Amino acid sequence: MAKIDPVQFSREVRQEVAKVTWPSRRETLITTGLVLALSSLAALFFLVVDQIIQFFMSWIFGF
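The structure assignment produced for this chain is given below.
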């Protein structure tokens, strides 16, 4: 079994974090905006579909 060395581990973690390419502020804002817009669009789509299904169910069963 390999010996666990906390100092070596933290050195390796720092090396790996240095390799990460972080998004710019602009990229983060654009991506966030897209996620919010598409989530809203999906919510609106499912609301409309749900209302259509509800209409047909009440029409079929006469509620």
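Interim note for the steering committee: The radius of gyration is 25 Å. DSSP finds two helices and no strands in the chain.
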